[in-house]
């Protein structure tokens, strides 16, 4: 608990002003943002707090991609498809045509992201934390304070892209934001993903489906028995990520606030205990597959589903989702279902979250407008990833990795355009030019009604 204040002594910091665009956060959105900005010729720096790129797919050990298709075709294209296809080609046990719930080998994915960002010409700064944000009265960020082994330093660019997941850059610069349930402030639960090694592949693949959607999954009896108190509920997504290795996105950790380091620290301790509990339970109920298994790895990042939502020039809503709405300024499409994980009572009783939305049919999707990436009141800042401008319900759809990859590419490209044509003003970017460049790079952007009327797009 903070109960006092401390005034810093005046100190002059070294200033690095050699970059046009600085991207903070090296998860999926940050990687494609940095690659896209550098591809456009902007001198780009990607700042990452850990020692690897990829965020939840690597350091977080999420074991599978959410669907890349709308059940008919791939909708997350451009750099998103490049990342997805490059990794899939290195995983021989995955079918070449697979697009949905494709497993992730986290070590291979780290190298894929390294190649994407460095290959585009962006600079990467690992093991570096955002320590502060300086801004002027006109809503311009004038410098970021970064902390690493070189000490506290200031970095200045023309445009900044916030891909921290929690909206740290924008929030610390004074942007408006929402967080959690509108009435209670409650956040969706987190999950600490893990990998079990030395699993018998044949027994795993030919045994009962562990996922809770299978009414015959042993997870239901295990939880109901009360014999495994370390396992909180029946949530147990799992995928074979490599020979004899199964990744798990299992269980929930309630009350975790990713903007509170004490909360996250407690969750990491609890999550590691939960991983051991799952291993022991699986060894008991499915010994042929898991009897000799070991906890190979636990995530160095907590799987956070919800924190700050930065308020932008447009707030995407669940009503937009239900209407399959298109926008003249949309920068990608999204077809993932609204996936809001409920309170402890709801999850443990099987009641769900109360926010379930009907799944889309084949070929259906909605647009995400560029205005969701432009924070109100800030001139030279973009956001991409989990912290874009949205309501709480639709956040459950737009927070996942495929759409974050697509949003990141758009944000990086827009940042470079703002540098080149708009004096750093991200609100003044020519959206027509942005959409044209996204299409040229393979992005999936069906023609808007205005474009159809003009007859310029087929």
UniProtKB/TrEMBL annotation:
The answer on whether this UniProt entry bears the keyword rRNA processing reads no
Q: Which GO terms describe its molecular function?
A: 4 iron, 4 sulfur cluster binding; metal ion binding; oxidoreductase activity
Gene3D superfamilies named among the record's database cross-references: FAD/NAD(P)-binding domain
**Keywords assigned by UniProt, alphabetized:** 4Fe-4S, Iron, Iron-sulfur, Metal-binding, Oxidoreductase
Q: Which domain of life is it from?
A: Bacteria
- InterPro entries for the chain: FAD/NAD-bd_sf, HdrA-like
- Name the chain's protein: FAD dependent oxidoreductase
């Amino acid at each position: 608990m903070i109960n006092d204040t401390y005034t810093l002594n005046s100190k002059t910091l070294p200033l690095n002003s050699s970059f046009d665009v600085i991207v903070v956060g090296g998860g999926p959105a940050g990687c494609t943002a940095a690659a896209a900005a550098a591809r456009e010729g902007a001198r780009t720096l990607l700042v990452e707090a850990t020692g690897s790129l990829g965020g939840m797919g690597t350091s977080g050990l999420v074991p599978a991609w959410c669907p890349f298709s709308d059940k008919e075709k791939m909708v997350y294209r451009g750099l998103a498809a490049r990342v997805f296809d490059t990794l899939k080609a290195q995983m021989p046990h995955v079918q070449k045509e697979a697009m949905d719930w494709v497993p992730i080998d986290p070590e291979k994915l780290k190298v894929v992201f390294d190649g994407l960002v460095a290959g585009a010409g962006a600079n990467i700064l690992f093991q570096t934390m955002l320590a502060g944000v300086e801004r002027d009265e006109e809503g311009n960020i004038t410098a970021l304070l970064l902390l690493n082994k070189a000490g506290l330093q200031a970095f200045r660019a023309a445009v900044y892209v916030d891909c921290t997941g929690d909206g740290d850059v924008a929030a610390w610069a004074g942007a408006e934001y929402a967080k959690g349930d509108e009435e209670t402030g409650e956040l969706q639960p987190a999950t600490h993903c893990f990998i079990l090694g030395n699993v018998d592949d044949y027994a795993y693949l030919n045994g009962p489906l562990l996922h809770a959607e299978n009414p015959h999954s042993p997870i239901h009896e295990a939880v109901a028995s009360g014999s495994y108190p370390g396992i909180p509920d029946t949530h147990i997504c799992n995928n074979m990520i490599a020979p004899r290795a199964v990744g798990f996105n299992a269980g929930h950790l309630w009350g975790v606030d990713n903007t509170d380091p004490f909360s996250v620290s407690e969750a990491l301790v609890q999550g590691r205990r939960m991983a051991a509990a799952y291993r022991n339970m699986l060894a008991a109920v499915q010994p042929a597959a898991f009897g000799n298994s070991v906890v190979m790895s636990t995530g160095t990042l907590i799987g956070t589903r919800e924190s700050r939502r930065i308020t932008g020039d447009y707030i995407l809503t669940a009503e937009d989702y239900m209407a399959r709405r298109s926008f003249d300024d949309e920068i990608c499409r999204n077809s993932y279902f609204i996936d809001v994980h409920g309170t402890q009572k709801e999850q443990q009783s099987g009641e769900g979250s109360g926010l379930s939305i009907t799944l889309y049919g084949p070929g259906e999707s909605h647009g995400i407008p560029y205005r969701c990436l432009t924070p109100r009141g800030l001139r030279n800042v973009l956001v991409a990833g989990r912290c874009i401008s949205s309501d709480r319900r639709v956040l459950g759809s737009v927070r996942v990795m495929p759409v974050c990859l697509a949003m990141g590419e758009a944000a990086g490209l827009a940042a470079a355009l703002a540098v080149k044509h708009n004096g750093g003003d991200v609100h003044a970017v020519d959206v027509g030019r942005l959409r044209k460049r996204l299409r040229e790079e393979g992005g999936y952007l069906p023609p808007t009604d205005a474009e159809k009327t003009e007859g310029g797009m087929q």
